Automatic annotation (TrEMBL):
Keywords: Cytoplasm, Methyltransferase, S-adenosyl-L-methionine, Transferase, tRNA processing. Belongs to the TRM44 family. Its main location: cytoplasm. GO terms for cellular component: cytoplasm. The keyword rRNA-binding does not apply. Pfam families: AdoMet_MTase. It is found in: Cytoplasm. One of its GO terms (biological process) is tRNA methylation. One of its GO terms (molecular function) is tRNA(Ser) (uridine(44)-2'-O-)-methyltransferase activity. Residues 438-457 are annotated as: Disordered. This is tRNA (uracil-O(2)-)-methyltransferase.
Amino acid sequence: METATTPPIPLYYQTTPDTPEQWTPILSKSCTFTQEIFTSVMHEMILNPNYNSSWILRADILSDSPAPPLQLEAGILGPMQIPNFTPNRTILRRFIPRNPQRDAAAEQTCTFYEEGQDRHALVVYQSHSETPGGLPYYLPTVRALAFQYSQDGEDSKSVSIYYRLFPDVPLNNRLERTALHLLTRIHKLGNGFTAGYNKRVHHDQIIPRETFQTTYLSLRERHAKRLIGKWVENTDPGKHVFEDILIAAFLIELWKDMGRSLEAGFVDIGCGNGVLVDILIKEGYAGWGFDARRRKTWGVLGSSTEQNLHEMVLIPRLLDGSVDDGIHDGVFPAGTFIISNHADELTPWTPLLAKDSECPFLMIPCCSHDLSGRRHRQAGKGSQYACLVEWVAKLAGDVGWEVEREVLRIPSTRNVGIVGRKIGEGMKVEEILRREGGGSGWSERALSLKAGGNKGH
């Protein structure tokens, strides 16, 4: 981005009909995108402030309507009177902080203005706090911000940022850096929209973001400190604990959507450290988990969890049919929800076991293995992970599952969740096994895991 300069065009707001006061000009930068794209960019930034600050979880849109009269209306600050500009849209948003125990929520009125000659556009963010101390740290300590798009000819376009400062908070280095960050973001989005950028990753296809994140914050408050404080593994507790809290939040909201009761039952196959099982059990859900090897964490999660974690391997009845000490045949009571979270070798088996037992499931693929348990890269276009996701989704669809996908909001690049909760006509599991080359060698590999081989989860 070229060096930004001071805005060339003065901007005023009206405190009284006869007393215009000038905003403080901060930065200006020439651009190539149109006014229509500027408006789209500003709408995107209002909806997703979390991309501008890691302290912000999201913004809830409380109202979105044509600009109200110049007065307080339904809790919304009326748009400022700005000479030569007419308000035409007002959005009231509430910031939800990533850490509610540290930061407070805050509300802001965002107003879109149009200019009579259609050569300038303006968007103003108004703080709802009358004092600097009423603003949380993640917001700039200003009464308002203004983003102005100006066009003085086909080749002379620019975006400028202005502040309406508090009397006792002068312009400082942090405010200047904030303005530069916002201006850079506007230009990046504007150039991307001009080039025809289409978002490739779509979150929140199954569970609405607001619902999921509200549950996540509640679970984090109840479980994060406890679990991190008890961590006994040699891995990063923050990553594993927060990831499992996020997955638990998704599952709880998914189960609510499915109308499942607390007693409906779940099983976590390849449960690893057992944290996900622990959170769900402590939230009142009936279920259990197993893995090829016991983890140190199991002994510190408490008896209500530990008694529901078992050291065993899964050898599908379709391959062996025997049940022995430490061996599970992969048959579960109908309706049990199967969780397959980074379950490695069990990943491709998940939709097949679910079909065989008539159980809904969530699988989050990780490492690529075939149905014999061998590491195997699936053919296809894209990355190894993309090919794995496509293959296991096809297995699910082929046996009759109505496949749903969610790019989960977890701190992992292996973050695609595949959900099966409705099933129709499809191929028999035995047909899939024959087509995919069978499961020869699975039993030996599974038993080697029990004997102490490495487990990725």
